[in-house]
Design brief:
This protein is an alpha/beta fold. The chain has a single domain, classed as Spore Coat Polysaccharide Biosynthesis Protein SpsA, Chain A. It is built from 7 helices and 10 strands. Strands 1, 2, 3, 4, 5, 6, 7, 8, 9 and 10 form a 10-stranded mixed beta sheet that branches. Helix 6 runs parallel beside helix 7. The longest helix is centred in the C-terminal third of the chain and has 13 residues. It is globular, with a radius of gyration of 18 Å. The two termini are 32 Å apart.
Amino acid sequence: MPKAAIAIVTPVRNGMPLLTETLDSIRAQDYAPLEIVMVDDGSTDATREYLRSLGDLCRVYEFDGIGPAAARNFGIRNTSSPLLAFLDADDLWPPGVLHTLADALAEHPRAFFARGLIRNFRTEADGAKTFFTVPYRHVNLGAILWRRDVFERVGAFAEDLRLCEDVDLLLRCWESDVPKVDLDCVTLYYRRHDGNFTRGLSGAGTGVVKAYKKRIERIRRGEYDPSVPRSVDQITYIGAGPSSQDKAFHGWRW
C-alpha cells in the first residue's frame, strides 16, 4: 500500500554546521514521497549558501526575521502533502521514525497526530554523541507527525509567540479534544548545545506564561469551558510501534 506523502518544514537561522547532520537524518529516513521545505529566516552565516547548493533535494525560501511560528505557517501554506512534520535545524530523527509515525496514523484514522518520546544528546569534542536522558514525553514538534487537517480544526501557529508556539498549539488541540496517538518509542533526538534558543531561560522566559495567557483569554471569551468533561478517549501504544497492542485511556496528557 502506498505511503501518505509527508511535508517536512524546517525553520533555520544560522544553522551551520549542525544543519548538515539534520539534513542527513531526514535523508536517512528512506521515506517517500517527501516534500522538504527549508525556511531560512535571516541567516548571516553560510546557511543560505549551503541550502542553495542542495539543488532539488529541498525547496528553500528566504525571509528576514519573521520568526519560527511564521516560518512554519509559511511551510504549511506552501506544501500539499496530507501529513506534516517539523524538524528543527539542530535536531535529529532516529532511522525509520517517519515510517513508524505514518503507520500509526494509518492504523488509527481518527487520530490527528502521532507522537513519540524524546532523548536529549550532546556532541562531545571528539564528535561522539552522548545521550544523557532516558526517553521522556514532552512538548516538542520534532517528535510529532501531524495530519494537515489539524490546522484547519484548531488554527495555525501563533505568530506573535517567538517561543512556546508549540505549547499554545497543543493546548488548543487539548481544548478541542483532538484525538492523538502516543507511541512508546523514541521519535526525536533533541540536541543540547550552547546555541539552543531556550538555553538559560526559565519557564516565563521560554514563553510558557504567554501561551497559558492565551488559554485564559480563550476561556474568558467563551471559546473553551474547562468544566466540560472530555469528549474523546485518547489512543496510546504499548510498545515500540504500530504492531503493538493498543488501548484507550480517558483524558488527555502531555
